[in-house]
Amino acid sequence: MKAIGLYRYLPIDDPESLIDLEIDTPTPGGRDLLVRVQAISVNPVDTKIRAPKPQQEQEPKILGWDVAGVVEQVGPECQLFQPGDEVYYAGSVARPGGNSQFHLVEETIVGHKPTSLDFAQAAALPLTSLTAWEGLFDRLEISQDAAANAGKSILIIGASGGVGSIATQLAHFAGLKVIGTASRPETIQWAKDHGATETINHHQPFGEQLKALGMENVDYIFCLNSTDKHWENMVDVITPQGKICSIVETHGPIDLSALQSKSATFVWEFMFTRSLYHTNDMIKQHQILDLLTKLIDRGKIKTTLTERVSPINAANLRAVHAKLEKGSTIGKIVLEDFR
């Protein structure tokens, strides 16, 4: 089967950084599904894993953790899916990614694709949606009952990116007042179109901007961009006993004691935790994706696809990686159609 992968970790402008491959089609066992891949999306995690380093691979490293496709075969222990089912999922960072014509994935982290979306529209969603859902409802422990959130607010740092585009929608659906950070006219409009009530500029102090909106602080903060850079601003504007969640690793120590006087909570969200450690609640990602499918098919949540690229090959994938590395994309870029 066709696949795209790497043996060496190189700058994206090097033609060897991602290459076209022919590899064997795998066979599903246990609770694995063999999925015929129809569309894939690219996330910052792909570029981070692919980033230059001395390490070399003996077997090709396949990236890609956003897939939409059709179940081709099921393992002997599968209970949730059957051949012919249309699915979408992010997969596991501990296994080969989905940048291949066929892909193995454990069914407990797979969802039924929304019928209202095509494969490319669906492929834009899994990783960012799981990250947003887990960050909001599992880590920050926000209620999904809008009535329970009356009068509460959330600041989403990086509201126009892949995760932010879903988090703003989910937080709005949950009844929160959503303040998103954005700095360009197009990203401000995008954030407001996806559920942000107000926006502030993440290049300027948060406190003064919130006061201009008639707010002293926020109940929740979801940090999707540079934990280091925004730490002092987050400490400043989080309400006493509030909660902060980040998905972005730090590059040095942060002063957690700065939150002590406010008895504020700081927590991480890493979408791959459940599949990486095979946690007892791993099936929750299947359940989240199926709940998201219902919301999408009811018109409550919309895809964040902004650009389609075809066909799926190494040259096109390198071009998409290069766009993501510039850090100014809005929404999600999807590749479709192996040829």
Automatic annotation (TrEMBL):
<dbReference type="InterPro" id="IPR051603">
    <property type="entry name" value="Zinc-ADH_QOR/CCCR"/>
</dbReference>
<dbReference type="InterPro" id="IPR011032">
    <property type="entry name" value="GroES-like_sf"/>
</dbReference>
<keyword id="KW-0862">Zinc</keyword>
<dbReference type="InterPro" id="IPR014182">
    <property type="entry name" value="ADH_Zn_typ-1"/>
</dbReference>
<dbReference type="InterPro" id="IPR013149">
    <property type="entry name" value="ADH-like_C"/>
</dbReference>
<dbReference type="InterPro" id="IPR020843">
    <property type="entry name" value="ER"/>
</dbReference>
<protein>
    <recommendedName>
        <fullName>Zinc-type alcohol dehydrogenase-like protein</fullName>
    </recommendedName>
</protein>
<dbReference type="Pfam" id="PF08240">
    <property type="entry name" value="ADH_N"/>
</dbReference>
<keyword id="KW-0521">NADP</keyword>
<dbReference type="InterPro" id="IPR013154">
    <property type="entry name" value="ADH-like_N"/>
</dbReference>
<dbReference type="InterPro" id="IPR036291">
    <property type="entry name" value="NAD(P)-bd_dom_sf"/>
</dbReference>
<dbReference type="Pfam" id="PF00107">
    <property type="entry name" value="ADH_zinc_N"/>
</dbReference>
<keyword id="KW-0560">Oxidoreductase</keyword>
<keyword id="KW-0479">Metal-binding</keyword>
<comment type="similarity">
    <text>Belongs to the zinc-containing alcohol dehydrogenase family. Quinone oxidoreductase subfamily.</text>
</comment>
<feature type="domain" description="Enoyl reductase (ER)">
    <location>
        <begin position="13"/>
        <end position="335"/>
    </location>
</feature>
